[in-house]
Amino acid sequence: MIKEDIRYGVDLVTYDIWRSLRVLPRIDEIIPGMLGTQTWDPDTYAKNARFVSDLGSPVLELLSARPGERILDLGCGDGVLTKKIADLGCKVVGVDSSAPQVEAARRLGLEAYVMHGEQLPFREEFDAVFSNAVLHWIKHADAMIEGVYRSLRCGGRFVAECGGYGCVEKIRTALVQALHRRGIDGESRVPWYFPTPGDYATRLERAMFRVDSIALIARPTPLPGDIIEYLETFGHSFLAGLSGQARDEYLQEVRAVLEPQLVDSEGVWVADYVRLRFSATKV
Ligand SMILES: C[S@@+](CC[C@H](N)C(=O)[O-])C[C@H]1O[C@@H](n2cnc3c(N)ncnc32)[C@H](O)[C@@H]1O
After folding, report:
1. Is the pLDDT at 119 greater than 80, yes or no?
2. What is the CATH number of domain 6-167+192-223+268-282?
């Protein structure tokens, strides 16, 4: 059921009204630079990135959702994985900072809202907060973790998987170095934060979570197509300011550097993914 409940502060119109009344400051006034240049298009996501939700089974198992539980999916994307939780008989709410992704999730019949993970407004409403492939996009992790803690009932779980330390290191290096060769500070364009287990466990414990498990998992990931499609889906911040021939040359240069490192003997591109997977409890 799609619900427009003002408690969630959720749809863009509501957010803009609150903002114009100065009830909410602009999100980039709170956390400068947070919005970045990455955007999400559900059709492109479905074509080039469906593996992201398809590979969400281990973290779904870790969640161990029970029918009737109320669960928040933080960064629900187009809702394909969220729907799997709803199909277990849970009452799921999805939130995501991308309006097109939220619209796609709503088309699946899910309750979903446009919201930044760093600004969760919920208070002790959920039995669990779930997240797949999102937290590495949130560099200001502490604000998000505190919001997750507030959103949970006592005894509630925070179960998530995201990119972990060393994730897509080869891809990242090739992207950064090709920008350096163009006189651009590539490091400043990196949109991801890939933490170690120690780093994230410390953040979780500082927010009063008990960490039940946390692990770094190497997961080389076959891509559905060419690396250029992957870069065009996930690498917007590196491409910002490049257009036409300059953009094509940049992408081809990165591709040429990566081909000997990431194409397997069958000719399949395999991304050097490393995941951080954890379960924590609000005690
Ligand atoms: C790789 S997708 C994962 C989507 C989904 N969880 C899945 O497994 O398919 C990452 C999602 O995180 C969302 N996202 C990125 N930064 C966010 C933030 N600060 N707050 C909420 N959502 C965010 C993006 O809009 C995008 O839909």
Report:
1. yes
2. 3.40.50.150
Most ligand 1 atoms within 8 A of CB, residue of 12, 134, 151, 237 to mutate: 134
β-partners of residue 276 are: 162, 216
What are the residue boundaries of the structural domains of the chain, listed by start?
6-167+192-223+268-282
- 3-class secondary structure for 16-51? HHHHHCCCCCCHHHHCCCCCCCCCCCHHHHHHHCHH
pLDDT digits (tens, 9 = 90+) for 168-224: 999 999 999 999 999 999 999 999 999 999 999 999 999 999 999 999 999 999 999
Pocket of ligand 1 (CB under 6 A): 40, 52-53, 56, 75-77, 81, 96-98, 101, 116-118, 132-134, 137-138
